[in-house]
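[09:14] KT: can someone run the structure on this one? pasting the chain below
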Amino acid sequence: MNYNPENPLIIQSDLTVLVEVNSPKYEAARDRLVRFAELEKSPEHIHTYRVNPLSLWNAAAAGITTEEIITTLETYGKYDIPQNVGVEIREAMSRYGKVYLDKEDDALILSSEDPLIILEICRQKTVQPYIEKRLDAHRISVLPLYRGHLKQALTRIGFPVKDRAGYLKGRTLKFRHRQIALSGNSFALRDYQREAVDIFHAGGGPDGGSGTVVLPCGAGKTIVGMAAMDILQCETLILTTNITASRQWKAELIDKTSLTDGQIGEYSGERKEIRPITIATYNILTYRRSREEDFPHFGIFNQGNWGLIIYDEVHLLPAPVFRFTAELQSRRRLGLTATLVREDGLETDVFSLIGPKRYDVPWRELESSGWIATAECCEIRLPLPQDKRLSYAIADRRAKFRIASENADKIHLVKHLLKKHKGDQILVIGQYIRQVEYMARELDAPLIMGKTPTEDRDHLYEAFRKGKIKILVVSKVANFAVDLPDASVAIQLSGTYGSRQEEAQRLGRILRPKSDGSLAHFYTLVTRDTREQEFARNRQTFLTEQGYRYTIRDADDVFEEA
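[09:31] RB: done, structure tokens below
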């Protein structure tokens, strides 16, 4: 057996990969490993990744070959790769592209060069409702309405479909990008943004037109979406997380393209405008009066002749929207996200219905190029107050987490950190309304939460951008798609259990490059030896996955600093 002590990877027969953090080759190995494996655990010295079919199919869709994967494992492996690992990787990778969807006249045809695969598919009960008839040993006629449902079902049984059936062009909408934005700044796509769009578009052929682009917050996902619109020159539906995000999309489009205010509509709880470019919120799409009723606003998908649908923050796409997306497979679909991790486990549905991962770039790679700010991530642990120990001891697991998260002693740490970063633009972020209201009063700082009117939110965000407000306290409503380019410090009071996707969004609030090149600081305040600390380990996993060093410090040591 070969043994390379300096190599960081230990590949195991169950397709887990252990990674030694202290190895000199750690960073190089990690940057290649994350392209086809998912990080599961990240304690101090040994991180655990898992190679699974979905991670391999996404890699295959992004153009990574089986040979590249095996070479990475061999190059950085401490020991020889177990024989079964190579076999299982090759088998999983080979399944991507074994089944095709094509359009022949008005018919949708599922085909495979292997007749036994077609036979197996025909015998699957979950697939049978979508089959019209078997044409021959290699081909099946499929009901066009069920194009998405079929892809979902086939992915779940291990046959990811390569969809080559093409897309409707949609109604043409002519516009152009400005070289000088209305704001007066020069505008051009960065190399990685252009590459992402070109891979998504694939020259307009059937191999492109659907899929997800993964870029960190602050790296210009909105610009990628705008560039896709520019290539396609068609009417577009954009789905966003909230009204603030919708209006930021509109402002960016007007600033950087020839599109006018009258060509861009907002479809939200406040307005119902259908225009050539329509920007809708997930909240309005999933609104219904009762569980028994249908979703009245889903009609928007058919109210325009859309040639492209953009799903902003696709990792937050509500489950009901997947249902309708399954019936929208004839429209081009672009998902934008900072992380494909979903807390509901529906990553497979993103793959089959929105499309596979087409483009991904390591956060640290963009950081080293200066496209996003360099960030330092620090968890500060403090004890539970004495007067809360009894209530914590007798509480159930859910209540334990809240008691620890709302630790009132966190205010002293916040005030100390504010003093340390005096003059910086600082966000204080919390999960619980009572907690953020208390913090805002104690800090004499403005507060944004769910019930804050949109107009007031926009006013406060603008004042923060201009530096008129230095400290802003926000609830989780500010997690998503809020453009605060000058925020340089984020202090996380509490979070949604172990949500990795939330960690990505909150870190992203401070990653836009600073005009003076200064560091960004991300602090997480955690109550020691509690449920909150347990969940913090999972949130930390995301930061580690992106290559950030995550330091853990004791509150007493922090207070001793000048």
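[09:33] KT: thanks! The longest strand covers residues 375-382.
[09:34] RB: yep, looked fine to me
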